[in-house]
Design brief:
The chain is mainly alpha-helical and 319 residues long. It contains 8 helices and 2 strands; from the N terminus they run ααααααββαα. A two-stranded antiparallel ribbon has the order 1-2. The longest helix is centred in the C-terminal third of the chain and has 69 residues.
């Protein structure tokens, strides 16, 4: 639906902007890392191969930044088109707080969404699959096609049955021709009758029409079964993706905490003369990589949650 497409497009733009922010910070550290390596090479403390590795890392960081800039442009244009704006429109999303997303996810280990929590609070026991069968517009359309098929069979088979017609009229005349003997006077009479009609010649055509209506009904039933199976797989897949995104976010948080601790230790060692500036810069780069993983994982979990809600039909318009 449009709601899902816009939501995912918006989060895609947020993810691209966040990626470029961290990559730009990594680029600055990589440049400092190359400058430090070149200084050490001039002092004869490292080899030319070390300098080449640092130069390669810088080239890779620059390519990543270019890739991030292009991704932002594409994501911004895609989102603008989805909401009916010009592709050149500079859409500026709100700030995304990965820590808040992590805290929300940490309080919900099973990967449940807000809708699940609401159902639990109100005593609801409906599982996501049942919810999807009830909410998804395709399911309602398929059910209506089956009902229409059943009605079509009944309508086509109606010609098999005789037609019973009730006739009646009232005659008021002077003289009244329905009376005998006739007399010069105003008289009223009723005439009521039943007419039974059977069109035997229409039976072959009626039989074929009924078979055709049954075939349309059977096709609607088969489409309904395929749709139900497809939605079952979609809901299961999106639920597993949501749980995976939750676990990935938890791993990302642990990686960032460990990288931050390693950076702290290296900084302390540098102050005490036990580590070089290069070691600190390397630790800084490792921290930024872990930070990028964590922040991207937070946005991915939000995208997975939106998709799970969409598959359950939560984002579908309801009558």
């Amino acid at each position: 639906s449009v709601v899902h497409a816009v939501s995912v497009g918006y989060l895609g733009l947020v993810k691209a902007i966040d990626y470029l922010e961290v990559v730009s910070e990594s680029l600055a550290v990589t440049e400092a890392r190359l400058a430090e390596t070149q200084a050490l090479f001039e002092q004869g403390l490292v080899t030319h191969n070390d300098v080449m590795k640092a130069e390669l890392a810088l080239a890779d960081a620059r390519l990543r930044k270019i890739d991030g800039e292009n991704t932002i442009r594409l994501a911004r244009a895609r989102l603008a088109v989805l909401v009916g704006l010009s592709p050149e429109t500079q859409v500026i999303p709100d700030e995304f707080d990965p820590e808040a997303e992590y805290e929300r996810a940490a309080g919900d280990p099973a990967g449940n969404t807000q809708a699940d929590e609401t159902a639990a609070d109100t005593g609801g026991t409906e599982d996501p699959l049942t919810e999807a069968f009830r909410n998804r517009a395709e399911m309602r359309m398929a059910e209506n096609r089956i009902a229409a098929g059943e009605a079509g069979i009944a309508n086509a088979a109606s010609s098999f049955y005789p037609a019973l017609i009730l006739k009646g009229n009232y005659t008021y005349a002077n003289p009244n021709p329905t009376l005998f003997p006739q007399s010069e006077a105003w008289n009223g009479t009723w005439e009521v009758g039943l007419l039974l009609s059977v069109d035997v010649g229409a039976y072959p055509a009626t039989w074929f029409k009924t078979r055709e209506a049954e075939a349309r009904r059977d096709r609607a039933l088969a489409d309904y079964a395929r749709l139900k199976d497809g939605i079952t797989i979609e809901v299961l897949e999106s639920r597993l993706e949501l749980e995976k995104a939750r676990d990935r976010l938890d791993v990302g948080r642990k990686m960032m905490e460990q990288a931050a601790e390693n950076l702290r230790i290296m900084t302390e060692k540098r102050k005490n003369g036990l580590a070089t500036t290069t070691d600190v810069l390397d630790a800084r780069l490792s921290f930024l990589e872990a930070k990028l993983f964590f922040r991207q994982a937070a946005i991915d979990r939000k995208i997975a949650e939106v998709t799970f809600d969409y598959r359950r039909g939560v984002l579908w318009p309801t009558p």
